[in-house]
TrEMBL record:
Protein name per the record: Bacterioferritin-associated ferredoxin
Record has Cell inner membrane as a keyword: no
Record organism: Streptomyces sviceus (strain ATCC 29083 / DSM 924 / JCM 4929 / NBRC 13980 / NCIMB 11184 / NRRL 5439 / UC 5370)
Lineage of source species: Bacteria, Bacillati, Actinomycetota, Actinomycetes, Kitasatosporales
Recorded superkingdom: Bacteria
Coiled-coil residue spans: none
């Protein structure tokens, strides 16, 4: 069984990212909270996004999980 590494900085595999997604993580930020992938050099963030797919979570689910909305981010800036 070969391991496909998504994040070289922290040794996170594709299988680990998929497991976190199955457990409810649906944004790169939530994956980062779960396993640190994407928090160092950032080169894996696009691969994480591709694994998660577009629209993996509805906007309502993101708000329930505490993810800031685009409007909230714009207000904070």
């Amino acid at each position: 069984m070969s391991r496909v590494y998504i994040c070289s900085c922290f040794g996170v595999t594709e299988q680990q990212v998929k497991k976190h997604a199955a457990d409810g993580a649906c944004t790169p930020r939530q994956i980062a909270s779960a396993c640190k992938a994407g928090t160092d050099c950032g080169s894996c963030v696009r691969r994480i996004q591709a694994l998660l797919g577009r629209g993996a979570c509805s906007r309502g689910e993101l708000v329930e999980k505490g993810e800031p909305t685009r409007a909230a981010l714009d207000e904070a800036a």
